[in-house]
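Write out this protein's structure.
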Amino acid sequence: MAEETVTPDEVARALAAAQEQIGTEAPPLAGRYPVEHDPIRRYCAAVDDLNPLFLDPEHAAGTRHGSVICPPLFVGYFACPGVWPPFSDEEDEQRGAGTFWGSGPRITTPGTRPINLTTEYELLKPVKVGDLLSVVSRFADVYIKPIRIDPNAFWRVTERTVTNQDGDVVAIVRSTGITYKEPEQDD
């Protein structure tokens, strides 16, 4: 079913409503499992990372870390509750439906096609086997920036703060994504 063309006023109202949500945080999400060596081992095999800090408990014990640490880009696996088992509708609404990390508030945009463009990791402290991680997602920014197929593409910035069981911030993850309107939406 084709949608009607969105007017500039409707775009402006959608942007203003989305900007009111800037700074909103989603409820904290606890990782489903503690950081475990076997998933780290499987991840390293999949990405061909042979770093002994991730794979060799004896080697890692002799380093300043004292134990196996989690590869930095694998922190999100342990910081989130994952996608299985499925969440209730209420839980899905709280965490940002359809997202691995949770994304905070939903915003209404003229477009329906989302794409994640960038994810930046600021790694502040090593994550060790046995750590229990959690994440808080904060809606950091939204603005309109034209792309070739949609002059009213909505750009959204989400910031996720990952903490361990002691409340130490171990990572900050910033993602920028867009939601755009496909040409077919105007047909």
